[in-house]
């Protein structure tokens, strides 16, 4: 699944490339089947061999970096290493240092976009990152999102790819445990066109949007007579999508006032859906149908 409309144990795969480079240096020589002779510091094909004062080191062609400097890094801010997550809708946020995160398309030196690899090894630098359920692309250049994971233990790799999804040697890794325990319950009363509501969260924290992105937490949105927002997409702000970014868990909605000319007495369905600190939708939600006058 490639996401273009959205939706930490650390491991670094540079050691793999170093091992390959050393192996290649040790295999240099005449492979035609003839007699191989060597002098100190060279092979029969004129290639240099490591000496006590010369060590084999990987080159840019052996470890693809797309112009990113050797001190660059990426990391998961959320989730943290060994996090215990109460929802299968897993929020993530990442930080990059020394590399520009931008949308996919053009290949820009020193830049790329994020991919999250689920329960699979990082992609060898220089190879194209696949598009499937284990390799999730964030080609919009986003630096946060929402993953859907099954309950259980998972290994997540954050890996940068260039504009055409060629893997760069920038990886961070976390292992998390996911449980399906978070839930919302809802009580409502109706008086005319006014709906009083009260949401209770279990195994989840309702917090102000200003608190940012945190595991097992988010803020409420009320969706009136419209479908819930797909996971990872930003919840709109309009008459049918109300944001409670102050962290409210109760309140009142005057549907006649909220919907204006579109309001009609009768049945109305209201979804309460949790969004992240950047208003990306999770499916921690509840809903009800009320009858107004």
From TrEMBL:
InterPro entries: DUF4399
Region listing for Disordered, in residue ranges: 29-61
Ranges for domain DUF4399: 95-179, 200-285
Comp. bias intervals (Low complexity): 33-61
Signal peptide positions (record): none
Domain of life: Archaea
Pfam families: DUF4399
Name recorded for this polypeptide: DUF4399 domain-containing protein
Source organism of the structure: Halogeometricum borinquense
